[in-house]
Write a structure and sequence with these properties.
This protein is of the alpha/beta class. Helix content is 41%, strand content 8%. It has a 5-stranded parallel beta sheet with strand order 3-2-1-7-6. The protein has a two-stranded parallel sheet with strand order 4-5. It comes from Glutamicibacter uratoxydans.
Length: 310
């Protein structure tokens, strides 16, 4: 055998591996070093019963089936959650998934639609948690209507319904609205609601001077100690104006975005799904949820979650 240099032997020997490397897609080559990613769990039949200890119940995932799914669905129904069917089906589908996500969110669990030990434990509890902190429903601006009389009359009907439902609304009205006689402050307060300033002409207060801000906040004919800055726009000057006037600065932490053209159902469903004890919900009197039927829907939906409305 003729003498072949060692370097050439190594080159020949490496050739198949080099060719193989060229044929492997870059994504496959990188897979070995890529970080771990969430892997979908295959659907499975999960079996258990109400007699199965909570700690021994299997984890349920979307699209699972079986008696354990039925048990989970019944527990959700017992707590007034809608699963997309009137009775347990044993199929973990989209309706049940939505109910699980909402249940997890309402109970401050990780909202991942996976029914594991923590979710099972809360589901299996005999009582729905009772929260003492209420949700505050607030409405800004001015009632809508074809005429001032129509707007005021519709508003008064809404205010009376709220009173009858045991709901205390916070209403932030503009001076322009009162000038147009579209809102009855005296009647609102008679019905037990709080009426505050939302400025005279609804400007962005952060663009005004201190004296201009104070003039905007003080609405002629409205005696109050609370106000809400339009758009939630606040800076040091705005805070100084509130302090000098002795006004409480009221903002919010749940924005329904009702002004974006949402339907009444979209607004009420958003409030029911997202409002938690202690939250301040922002809506507007000139949009879809300032009426009796919307308030009744919100009241019913939050009551099912054992959430009170202040």
């Amino acid at each position: 055998m003729p003498h072949v240099p060692l370097r050439r032997l190594l080159t020949f020997a490496s050739l198949p591996f080099l060719l193989l490397a060229l044929l492997i897609p870059a994504s496959a080559a990188n897979a070995a070093v890529a970080p771990d990613a969430a892997v979908a769990v295959p659907a499975a039949v999960r079996s258990c019963s109400s007699a199965t200890p909570v700690a021994s119940r299997p984890t349920l995932n979307y699209k699972d089936t079986g008696s354990c799914v039925k048990l989970m669905q019944q527990l959700l129904l017992n707590k007034a959650y809608k699963i997309g069917a009137s009775a347990p089906t044993g199929n973990y589908l989209s309706g049940t998934k939505a109910a699980v996500l909402l249940f997890q969110k309402n109970n401050r669990l990780v909202a991942d639609a996976v029914v594991g030990p923590k979710t099972w434990a809360v589901l299996a509890s005999s009582k729905t948690p009772k929260f003492t902190s209420p949700v505050y429903l607030t409405f800004d601006d001015c009632p809508s209507g074809s005429t001032s009389t129509a707007a005021r009359t519709a508003s008064n009907t809404t205010l009376k319904t709220a009173r009858d439902l045991g709901m205390h609304l916070r209403l932030y009205v503009t001076g322009d609205c009162l000038k147009a006689k579209r809102f009855d402050v005296a009647y609102a307060r008679q019905m037990g609601h709080t009426v505050c300033s939302h400025t005279n002409t609804h400007p962005e207060l952060t663009k005004l001077t201190l004296s201009q801000i104070k003039a905007e906040l003080q609405i002629p004919g409205l005696t109050t100690n609370c106000a809400r800055p339009p758009y939630g726009a606040v800076n040091t000057t705005v805070r100084t104006a509130f302090s000098q006037l002795g006004y409480r600065l009221d903002l919010w932490n749940v924005d329904t975005n009702d002004w974006r053209g949402k339907t009444q159902t979209e607004v009420t469903n958003y409030v029911i799904a997202n409002a938690r004890p202690g939250d301040v919900v922002l809506m507007h009197m000139n949009h879809k949820a300032y009426n009796s039927s919307a308030l009744k829907a919100i009241k019913a939906g939050l009551s099912k979650k054992s959430v009170n409305i202040k």
